[in-house]
Structure formats: structure tokens, C-alpha cells
Automatic annotation (TrEMBL):
<keyword id="KW-0670">Pyruvate</keyword>
<keyword id="KW-0808">Transferase</keyword>
<feature type="domain" description="Pyruvate kinase C-terminal">
    <location>
        <begin position="462"/>
        <end position="560"/>
    </location>
</feature>
<dbReference type="GO" id="GO:0030955">
    <property type="term" value="F:potassium ion binding"/>
</dbReference>
<comment type="pathway">
    <text>Carbohydrate degradation; glycolysis; pyruvate from D-glyceraldehyde 3-phosphate: step 5/5.</text>
</comment>
<keyword id="KW-0324">Glycolysis</keyword>
<comment type="similarity">
    <text>Belongs to the pyruvate kinase family.</text>
</comment>
<dbReference type="InterPro" id="IPR018209">
    <property type="entry name" value="Pyrv_Knase_AS"/>
</dbReference>
<dbReference type="InterPro" id="IPR011037">
    <property type="entry name" value="Pyrv_Knase-like_insert_dom_sf"/>
</dbReference>
<dbReference type="GO" id="GO:0016301">
    <property type="term" value="F:kinase activity"/>
</dbReference>
<dbReference type="InterPro" id="IPR015793">
    <property type="entry name" value="Pyrv_Knase_brl"/>
</dbReference>
<keyword id="KW-0479">Metal-binding</keyword>
<keyword id="KW-0418">Kinase</keyword>
<keyword id="KW-0547">Nucleotide-binding</keyword>
<dbReference type="GO" id="GO:0004743">
    <property type="term" value="F:pyruvate kinase activity"/>
</dbReference>
<dbReference type="InterPro" id="IPR040442">
    <property type="entry name" value="Pyrv_kinase-like_dom_sf"/>
</dbReference>
<dbReference type="GO" id="GO:0009570">
    <property type="term" value="C:chloroplast stroma"/>
</dbReference>
Length: 580
């Protein structure tokens, strides 16, 4: 072992680990030094190691590597998965669609999470409906450990429980069959164990405003009842469409083919949700997904709360899963930092056959308004039990990718299924395939773009991004490099769904974690100065050292770094550079 400047290098087999001992704060990055030592990687937690002098590294255990001279003047914040993909498939082979996994008992150990990370998980989702905060805390700490020690770049999302009407788990652990014509009592009375033909309904006011003759639907169609009698707050119902009553099944009411909206009566953020949000803030999560959002104000309220806690960098995603949220869609999209099309509960509130078109419309409006959008629920549902997907599921995943959703999400497939890794690889392969097809067919040419910017600088940034993507596609450049503090221009570029990948260089770790969710963006943490030429010079040197680009590669460079001292009129710029 030898201490060299501010880096300690330890060797173990032919892997080299290092830890940084300098005054600077460093975060999750890997560096590769292929030209000097084939197969040897110095993995460390450096953000940008400024080692001006030549490094002398002596590795006692491996004499062959002793006394190496490494002339590094920086380390690039590349995560291991992208680095591997880039080496194997080149720029155009990099996957654009981002992948989210819900973490549950089937994938919560460090080893399970590492497998998902290697499989391309960009964001880990913790559903606060299930399990304890201590359990979630352990998962979060494992993810942070993977990022810090193994060079991954995984963002963290918590998903609130929200309030909705559902059946209290009747305690027998399995489903009960409701036969045609059988009479059932839906009650708010609380009792232990189970009673025949009786269902405990969660939410005291569940029967308020419900009339005899209304339909009570379980889980969006699993079973249907007709209300035949009201007894106080209890409802006596006759089964008209037999089916299964699963533990915690969801309840909705319908009258003359229309949903009786009960969701609006319930608070979007309950006392438990606020406690979970505080938990998320203290654990430093990157996204909070809010369940059962009804209106834009639900989001604004939380965003205001986050700013009073100095946590405005946490992005707030609105889950579209109620009929009310569809009525207020545009306002909700504008107020939030992104959207999740939560098809599970949405299917309880709107007829199932409407889901595909509603999804397409939501994905489109999000891209227009430059907000990331996630397509979630039942993408590969059969894989909870089986190791291969159905053909219909593959078609559904393909459709979401074809629509240019930013991200796809696994729920039960990863949380409780036996084939989480396989499900993730199906998402990965289908995404790659469809992205290739869209590119070959020039599909992104058909994407329309509305003007978002109001002020002149905003409009300039938007125009630069639109034109840059057109140029990048027409010139067939290998990559787009964007220098950005808060990710604005990176996101405007992504909105145009360009052919080449977008490498976003930022000096803010929260921007890295946010951009992780967005289509086609590979965020990289580096040090940025106000001198753009210097930024470009340094990062180009870094990407060359890392083996990321080679001589002759053409890169389109875009920047939105604003010098703080004087507002330089041309702070936003486009350049096309060939690597020399
Ligand atoms: N942290 C967890 N602990 C235990 N089980 C979990 C956990 N997270 C998810 N699950 C299980 O995985 C299933 C699918 O997860 P998912 O997040 O889609 O939940 P959900 O209950 O359908 O609710 P939501 O509408 O919020 O998504 C859940 O029904 C639950 O059984
Ligand atoms: C993800 C989620 O909450 C749903 O599909 O209902
Ligand atoms: K939830
Ligand atoms: Mg839901």
C-alpha cells in the first residue's frame, strides 16, 4: 500500500480500490485507466480529483503493477453500468428509457439490490404503503452503499400511501370467492378475524352519498355487487358479477356507468404521509411520488413544505391515478416535477379500455411540458410468478417505449416476484429494441413541440435545444454534451428525444440524481467553472482519458452555465467538436 498525494490505493487481486483522503468532498465515481493498466480500475468516491502532479502508485501485492506512473488530472463521474454498456455497445447502443424497480421483500438484500443495479435499475422506489420505516431505512442505506462503494448511480424515490377506499385485510391471508347472487355486508365496524359474507371497509365515510341501486366494484372489475340496502353506514350488497376478494382489495362505486367520486373527499396527504415525507427528507431521497393527487394544489403544498425544510431539490412527482387528476391534468403536470401514470389504481377509477389512450395522452402532454413521465403497473405482471413474460406484456412495454415515456416501472415483479432480475432484463431488451426501431424509422421527426419559454433567455435556451437536436440527428454526431447546473438544458434536449445520448455535465449531485429519471440523459458529476472553454477543455481531456470517446468522434456541445459576475449575452451556446 502506498499513499500518493491525497489518494490511498489498496490492491486486491487485480482490482484496485482507493479511498480519497483530501480536503474535498467526493462522491460516487469510478475512473478507469485502461491505457496504463489494462483491466485495472481505480474505483473511488471522487467527484473530480484534482491531482496535478504525477501519481506514484505502488501495489505491493501485485508486483507487476508496482511503480506505475499515472498522469491523471481528473476523474470522471461515470457509473459502472453506463460505462460497461458504452464499451459493449457504443454511443448509439446506450439505453435511453430509464428503469425503476419497486423494492420489496424479494429484492431488499444488498446482493439482490446489486443484481438489480447491474441490470440497469436507475431509480429504486419504496412504496410506503408496505413495511416499516426501519425496513425502508435499511434499503436506503444499502442503495447508498452501492452508489458510494460500487460506483452505481441509483436515485431514490418514496411513494406515499395516500388515502383510498379498500377492504381491510380480513386476516385469513388469502382470497375469498364471491358467488353470483350471494349477499354480503360491507361494514365500517372493526372486529378481529373474519366473519362469513362480511367485508370490513376502510374509511368511515365510504358509504356516504351512496344509494340503493349503485354498483360496488372490487379492484376495477374483479367482482361486482349491487347495493340493495343501507343500514346506517353499512351497505348490504348482492353479488352480480362473481369473482375474488383479495386482501386489501380496492373499492369503487358506480352509478349509471359513471364513477361516484369518493376520492376527492379523502386527503391526498394523510398524517402518516406527512410523517413518511419527513422520513424521506431526513433520509435524503431524490423523489417523492404523491399518490392520489387530485389537483395542482396538492403538489404545490408539498413543494412549499419542502422549501421551508430547505429540501426543494427533492423532486415531487404526481401520480395520476384518480378520475379527478385526469380532469386537472395540465395544471398538475405544470405544478409537478414529473408524472407517474399509475395504471393500477387508474384502472379502478376509469374503464380499463380507456387506459391505453389516456396513457398516450399523458405521456405526450408531459413531453410537451418538459416533465419526465413514468409508465407504471402490470407491465410484466405475469413475471411475478413466471420466468417469461406474455407476448401481450412485451407489446405493452414496447408501446410505452414507442410513446417515448421517460421511464418504465416494475412493481410486484421486483418487490415480491421470484424473477425480478429477469423482468428487469426484459424491460432493458425491449427498450433497446424499440429505441433502435424508432431511430431507424426516424420516428422522433414526428414529435411536435410547443413553445414553453416566456422570457427571451428561456426562449433562446429552448430554441438552442430544439435546433441542437436537429443538428445532432442530421449530422449524425456521436454524442451531445451539455454543461448544466440545474439540468434545464439537458431536459430541454431530452424532450426532443435525439438519436445520440446526452451526456449532462453538472457540478450538483442533486441534478445528477434528478436527471437519472429522464430519457436519454447520462448525468455526470464534474467540477464546473464559469469559463466554458476551460470546462470543455477539461472534460474533453477527462472523457478521452476514460476511453469514453476516441479520435474522430464528433460531439455537439451545449451549455447553460451562467457566469454570476456579469451576464454575458452569449452564455448559452452550441458548438460541434471533433475529438482530436
Ligand atoms: N416494502 C414492501 N414490503 C412488502 N411488500 C411490498 C413492499 N413493496 C411492495 N410490496 C408488495 O408488492 C406488491 C406490488 O407493489 P406496488 O408498489 O405496486 O403496491 P400496491 O399495493 O399495488 O400499491 P400502489 O397503488 O401504491 O402501487 C404489493 O401489493 C405488495 O404486496
Ligand atoms: C403505481 C400505483 O400506485 C398504481 O398503479 O396504482
Ligand atoms: K403508494
Ligand atoms: Mg396506486
Amino acid at each position: 500500500m502506498a499513499i500518493v498525494n491525497d489518494i490511498t490505493v489498496l490492491s486486491s487481486g487485480n482490482k484496485v480500490f482507493s479511498s480519497v483522503l483530501s480536503k474535498k468532498q467526493f462522491f460516487g465515481v469510478s475512473v478507469c485507466v485502461p491505457k496504463i493498466v489494462p483491466d485495472v480500475r481505480v474505483r473511488n468516491r471522487a467527484r473530480f480529483v484534482e491531482v496535478k502532479s504525477t501519481l506514484q502508485i505502488n501495489l505491493d501485492e501485485k508486483n507487476v503493477y508496482s511503480s506505475l506512473d499515472l498522469d491523471l488530472d481528473g476523474i470522471l463521474g461515470f457509473d459502472v453500468v453506463t460505462e460497461k454498456e458504452l464499451k459493449e455497445k457504443g454511443f448509439l447502443g446506450l439505453r435511453k428509457t430509464k428503469l425503476i424497480c419497486t423494492i420489496g421483500p424479494a429484492c431488499s438484500s444488498f446482493e439482490d439490490l446489486e443484481r438489480l443495479a447491474l441490470g440497469g435499475m436507475n431509480v429504486a422506489r419504496l412504496n410506503m404503503c408496505h413495511n416499516t420505516r426501519e425496513w425502508h431505512r435499511d434499503v436506503i442505506s444499502n442503495i447508498k452503499k452501492l452508489n458510494e462503494e460500487k460506483g452505481f448511480c441509483i436515485s431514490l424515490m418514496i411513494d406515499t400511501e395516500g388515502s383510498q377506499m379498500y377492504m381491510v385485510d380480513h386476516g385469513i391471508g388469502s382470497s375469498v370467492k364471491a358467488e353470483d347472487g350471494s349477499i354480503w355486508l360491507f361494514t365500517t365496524e372493526r372486529y378481529e378475524g373474519s366473519r362469513p359474507f362480511t367485508v370490513q371497509a376502510y374509511y368511515e365515510g365510504f358509504s356516504e352519498g351512496i344509494n340503493v341501486g349503485d354498483e360496488l366494484v372490487i379492484d376495477g372489475g374483479m367482482a361486482t355487487f349491487e347495493v340493495i340496502e343501507k343500514d346506517g353506514s353499512d351497505l348490504r350488497c348482492k353479488c352480480t358479477d362473481p369473482g375474488l376478494l383479495l386482501p386489501s382489495a380496492k373499492i369503487s362505486f358506480w352509478r349509471n356507468g359513471k364513477l361516484v367520486e369518493k376520492n376527492v373527499e379523502l386527503p391526498t396527504l394523510s398524517t402518516k404521509d406527512w410523517a413518511d415525507i419527513d422520513f424521506g427528507i431526513s433520509e435524503g431521497v431524490d423523489f417523492i411520488a404523491v399518490s392520489f393527487v387530485n389537483e395542482a394544489n396538492d403538489i404545490t403544498l408539498l413543494k412549499n413544505y419542502l422549501s421551508t425544510k430547505s429540501s426543494e431539490f427533492i423532486k415531487v412527482l404526481a401520480k395520476v391515478e384518480s378520475l379527478e387528476s385526469l380532469k386537472n391534468l395540465k395544471d398538475i403536470v405544470e405544478a409537478s416535477d414529473g408524472i407517474m401514470v399509475a395504471r393500477g389504481d387508474l384502472g379502478v377509477q376509469i374503464p380499463l379500455e380507456q387506459i391505453p389512450t389516456v396513457q398516450e395522452a399523458i405521456v405526450d402532454i408531459c413531453r410537451q411540458l418538459n416533465k419526465p413521465v413514468i409508465v407504471a403497473s402490470q407491465l410484466l405482471e405475469s413475471m411475478v410468478e413466471y420466468p417469461t413474460p406474455t407476448r401481450a406484456e412485451v407489446a405493452d412495454v414496447s408501446e410505452a417505449v414507442r410513446q417515448y415515456a421517460d421511464a418504465l416501472m416494475l412493481s410486484g415483479e421486483s418487490a415480491i416476484g421470484s424473477f425480478g432480475d429477469k423482468a428487469l432484463s426484459v424491460l432493458r431488451m425491449v427498450s433497446n429494441r424499440l429505441e433502435l426501431w424508432s431511430r431507424a424509422e426516424n420516428k422522433q421527426r414526428l414529435l411536435s413541440q410547443c413553445q414553453l419559454g416566456v422570457s427571451l433567455p428561456e426562449r433562446i435556451a429552448e430554441q438552442i435545444c430544439n435546433c441542437s437536436v436537429e443538428m445532432a440527428n442530421n449530422l449524425g454526431v456521436d454524442a451531445i454534451f451539455v454543461y448544466t447546473r440545474h439540468g434545464n438544458m439537458a431536459s430541454l434536449l431530452s424532450r426532443n428525444r435525439p438519436n445520440p445520448p446526452i451526456f449532462a455535465f453538472t457540478d450538483k449531485s442533486c441534478t445528477v440524481k434528478t436527471l437519472n429519471l429522464q430519457w436519454g440523459i447520462i448525468p455526470l458529476l464534474v467540477e464546473l467553472s464559469e469559463d466554458m472553454e476551460d470546462n470543455i477543455h477539461r472534460t474533453f481531456k477527462l472523457v478521452k482519458t476514460s476511453g469514453m470517446v476516441k479520435k474522430g468522434d464528433v460531439v455537439l456541445v451545449v451549455s447553460d452555465i451562467i457566469p454570476s459576475s456579469s451576464i454575458h449575452p452569449s452564455f448559452q451556446s452550441i458548438k460541434v467538436k471533433t475529438i482530436v
